[in-house]
Amino acid sequence: MPGREDKGRTRLSVLTFVVFALLLALLSRLWYLQVLATDTYGQLAEGNRIRQVLTEAPRGRILDRNGKVIVDNRAAWAVTVKTAELGERRDEVLNRLARLLGVPRATVDERLERWVGSPLKGVPVAEDVRADVLFHLTEHTEDFPGVEPAVVALRQYPFGQTAAHVLGYVGEISAEQLKDPRYRAYEQGDVIGKAGVEQSYDRDIRGRDGFELLEVDAAGDVVRTVETRDPVKGRDLRLTIDLDVQRVAEQALASGMVTARGLHDSQRGGTYPAPAATAVVLDPRDGGVLAMASLPQYDPRRFVGGISRRDFARYNDSPGKPLLNRAVQSVYPPGSTWKPFTAMAGLESGVITPGTRFTCSGGYTLGNYTKRDWAPSGHGSVDLNRSLAQSCDVYYYNLGAIFWQGEKRAEDARKPVPERMQATAREFGFDKAPALDLPFAAGGIVPDRGWRKDYWRQNKDVYCKGTSRLYRELCADGYLWRGGDNLNIAIGQGDVLVSPLQLAVGYAALANGGTVYSPHVAQAIVDPATRRVTKKIRPQVARTAKAPAGAYGAITAALTTVISGGTGASAFAGFPLDQYPVAGKTGTADLPPNAPFAWFASYAPAGDPRYVVAVMVEQGGHGGETAAPIARRIYQQLFGLDGTEVTAGRDASG
What we know:
alpha+beta; Penicillin-binding protein 2a (Domain 2); 2 domains; seven-stranded mixed sheet; five-stranded antiparallel sheet; 23 strands; about 40% helix; about 20% strand
C-alpha cells in the first residue's frame, strides 16, 4: 500500500528534522555557554563561591575646642530584614520576628515601610537587641529567611540636642547624591553626613570600610577566608565651639523666649509670640565660632539608625522649622543694629565727623515722604555718640538724605552713582553668603538700584495685573530708586536682609579694626590614635574694610555708651562694665503684620575685644528688653561671672 508507506516516510522525515533541530539548538547553546559566555558565567560561578562581608568603619568623633567629646560612636547589635528574600513567607516570617522582638507586627511593618535609606544592607527593624534574641535567630535561620543580625556603629550624643545644627546628622546616601560629582567615590548604601559638620567634613571623619572575602561551599558554609581588610576609623574633628558657652547660649535663648512671651505688645495687643531665636558667639581675632544656637532645634538622636518618614515629616512640617539653622540659613531686617555701618559710611566718605550734629524733633521729611522717629518727641541735638546711645532714627535719616542728594546729582549729570552706604556694607561682608564651613549659608540683601530693577522685572506681571493705586504705580515705575529707599537702608529697614551670622561677622570687623574673617566652626582634624593634628583649619581673611583714622575708635566709643547709659543700659544694670566694657547696639526690626524682631549685636571687652555676641528673637519685641538680656547671660559665661536669670530689660526701643 504505497499511500501508507509515503505517509510513514513523511512522518519519519519530520521527526528526523525535529530531532536534528533540537540537537542543533542544544549544541549551539552548549557552544555559547562554553565559548562565548565563558567569562560571564565564570564570574557568576565565582560570585556563588565567594562572599564579601563588609565591616563598616566607625566615623571619627567630634570634639569641642577643649577636647570634650560631643559626638561619639557605640557598637550595637541590630536585626535587619532584606524584604526581597522573604518571598511568599513574608507574613509568616514577619509575624514570627515581631513575636521574638516583643513588638507589635505593625511596628516592624512601619520600620520597613517608612525606611528612607537603601535596603541593600537590609532594613534595620530593631537596634540594641538582646543576646537571647540574637542566639535564637542564629540557631533558627531556616525560620527567618532574609532576617540577619548585624553589628552597627551608631552615633552617640552625650549632651543630647546641644549644638544639633552645628553637628548635623548622618544617613544613607540618596540616589540624587550619587549623581553628584562630589560623591563620585561613594556607593549606594554608604552612610554619609547629611547636615552640619557631619556633611562639611564627611571625607575626613567617615573612615574606610573593611571587608572579608569568604569562600563558601554549595550549602553556603564558609570554607576559608580569602582576603581581609580591617576597617580604618575616621579621623576626629575638633571644633572651635566651646561646649559650655554653647549650652549657656541655648539655655539663655530658651529663657529669653519665655520671658518675651510674658511681655505686653502695646501695638498689637496680647503678648509677643517669640516662636524662635538664635545667637552667635565669634572670636573677632580669627572668625572662630564659639557658639551657634538656633531654637527650636531637632534631636539628632532621632536620626540614629535611620529616621522614619513619619518622624522626618514631623520635623519638616513643624511651624517652628526645627531643622532650620536660623543663624546661618535665615535672613531678617537688622533694624538699628545696622546703624553703625551707616555711620561708618558717613565717616568714610567725610559726610560726618564724630562731632557732627543733627536736630531730631521726632520726624524727618524728604520731598513728600515723611519718616517718624521711634521716640515721638525726638532726641534734640544729636551727635554720633548720642545717635547710637539713644538709637536716634532721625540722625540716620539725615545721613541717608545726604547720600541721596549726592546720588541724585550724579544721576542728573549721567555719571556713575556713588552708592556709599551699600559699598560700605559690602566691605563688612554683607550681601554675600559668608565662606562658612557649614552648608546652606544665606547671602542676604543689600538693595541698590540694580537690585531694584531686577526685582521689578521679576514681579512686573504681578504689579500690572493689580488694580490698586499702589500696584498701578509699581507697574509704571517700580524700577525707580527713590529717596525713601535711602532712608530705609540708613536704619536697617526696608529691603535690607542679613543673617545673624553675617551681623556677627560685621561686628567682629568693627571690633578688630576692619578685618573681615571668614567664619569657621572647625579647628582641626586629629588622628584618633596619636592625637596628632593632621590638618589645621587656618583663619581666612575675606576682605578688609578700610576707614579713616579714628573711625573705628569713634564707633566703639559710641557703642559703649549704648550699654552704659543708652538703650542697652537696663539689660546690663549691675554688670561689671568697669572690668569688662561692652560695646553693643540694640535693634528692633519691623515686619508687619508680625510683632517686632528683637536684636542685640555687641563685642567685648571694648578696649581689647575677644568676643562678639549677636542675638535675635523672632517676634520677641524690642532689642533692649528681650535680646540684650540674653547676650548679658552669655557674657557672664564668657567672663566666668556668676550667671543670672534672663529677665526683661526696660523697653528703650531702638
